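MODEL INPUT / OUTPUT PAIR
PAIR INDEX: 1
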Amino acid sequence: MGFNNNFNSSGGATVLTDLEVDGTTLSIDETNNRVGVGLTTPKTRLTVEGAVTFKEQASADSDTVAYGQLWVKTATPNELYFTTDAGDDIQLTTGTGTAGGGGGAAADTADTILHMQVFA
């Protein structure tokens, strides 16, 4: 991967080819429009090799048409949520297990399976 030191008039760098930072720390596959963290060959638009850390927050950010949000709600212990582009908050975990039932009610057993379908 290479880097071309071109700078635009606003002082920002323009990368004309793939970019790799510190080996596998961050890589950009310019040909396929993919970003990799922790690896040099991203498999999808964003590929992360290893754990992803989310900072807890009180609620989802403002809704954006055609985009969902994955976020961690401030609770003890933290709870994982998915928010649809319509602003519907779907609780995925109870902090100690998976959420189940309608509207994110806590599951009665540890055998609950989470099914999520995302429409593009």
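PAIR INDEX: 2
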Amino acid sequence: MTIYTARRPSRVLGVDPGLTRCGLGVVEGVPGRPPTLVATGVVRTGADEDIAVRLLAIEAEIERWLDEYRPDTVAVERVFAQHNVRTVMGTAQAGTVAIVCAARRGLPVAMHTPSEVKAAVTGSGRADKDQVTLMVMRLLRLTDRPKPADAADALALAICHLWRAPALNARRGGQASRADQEPQPRETRSAPQAPSRGGAPARGQRGRDSPVLGEGTGGTAPGGDTAIGDTA
């Protein structure tokens, strides 16, 4: 008789980083099954506020969510290149705040690209936002669209990690196992050479007053080329 052990449901906080709107979404479940919605929302900051004040507001709200919903993992969207550098910087800064909040509590952090999220939720890495939102509604059995779109994106991030976590953990475990099995290089020792006749240093040995090219002596290599390490 085969005994199946039920998996404990895992809770994931998804963070769709942004300065003006930072999407937050918490889901709970096990891989391969439709998850359950726990909470969703958005942190808003004013574009005319100082950057330090905006980041502090995002940190305070994420800390509140971590206290209230106690996720097992935090999933953050990985920043990718855009034409608008200012937007990229703001996204990266908000994402870093979420990572620091999780690390402060010892929570694992996962990074997923938009294509990975789309592929996990819809089956296509080229899906548009509307398709992602519709699949999030279907999976979480929602009757209304999560608003704004940042909230839906945060839920999609959480679902993506919930479903991809076993494959990611297995991949890390396989890499660690291969690294442990790799043979370590042996240490080789060269036999000492006897000094040559006439008291001159043997090849490979330095005399007490003999300079070495490349050690800042300003010496010249054969052929007149400046030696490596010359300051000239």
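PAIR 2 NOTE: The CA atoms of residues 18 and 50 lie 15 Å apart.
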